[in-house]
Amino acid sequence: APLGELAGLSRLVATLCDSASGIGRSGVDILQAETIALFNQAEPPASVLPRGLAFDCLPSSGPLDESGMSEAEARVSRELARLLGQELPRSVTTLRIPVFAGMGIQVSLETLRPLTPERALECLAKVADLDIWPQPEGPSTRDAIGEEEVLVGRLRRDPSSTHGLSFWLAFDPARLAVSHALRVAEARFRGRSA
Of 106, 138, 99, which is closest to residue 18 (Cα–Cα)? Predict the structure, then answer.
């Protein structure tokens, strides 16, 4: 949204890389069991997923509807429109990746007006709960585990678009949810006597 306020948004494409923990504890357990089985050259156990996840990347994070979209993709697309306060062309893909925790999102967007990567970074550096990653290769999902901020990195021009930018986000969804719930509770109960 801050980038949209600065340069206007005309299109957004996001690919979410969701970990095994996105399924819950059963996802973590199955990834662990599959990994051990494959290292021991044994048959992987039955899974809560349509196919094994260890040493693979699944092209969706859940069942697909008649249009080919998963429930998570539809939900994220709706949330993006709500959070950005506008309807704009957008495409969301969710993948299930073989990591235990954390989430990464590759974002490519087009702005209405020119916006340099440097100016975009200056803008994002002022946003609460975002932390700009200092190394050029960007943060990994592991780097985000336990962090209360969304880590932003690899911000660069998108050469496929005149006014395009691409960047990577890494975060810990469980930690963010807990942190948000605590802030809401603090705000709600602030000022009440015990």
Answer: 99
Q: Give the per-residue pLDDT at 193.
A: 52
Q: Percent of the chain scored above 90 by pLDDT?
A: 70
Query: Which H helix or E strand runs over 90?
Result: strand 90-96
Is 169 in a helix, a strand, or coil?
strand
Residue 192 dihedral angles phi and psi, to the nearest 5°: -80, 140
Task: Output the CA–CA distances (angstroms, integers) from residue 24 to 13, 90, 109, in the order listed.
Answer: 26, 27, 30
Distance between CA atoms of residues 176 and 36, nearest Å: 30
| CB contact at 8 A, 86 and 1 | no
d(CA 42, CA 181): 42
**Residue range 98-106: average pLDDT?**
94
11 half-sphere exposure, CB direction, 13 A CA radius: 12
pTM assigned to the model: 0.86
Q: Round to whole Å and give the CA distance between 180 and 194.
A: 22
Helices in 40-116 by DSSP H: which ranges?
71-84
Residues 6 or more apart whose CB falls under 8 angstroms from that of 120 comprise 3, 6, 155, 165, 167
With contact defined as beta carbons under 8 Å apart, do 12 and 109 qualify?
A: yes
pLDDT in tens, 145-191: 999 899 999 999 999 999 999 999 999 988 777 776 777 777 777 76
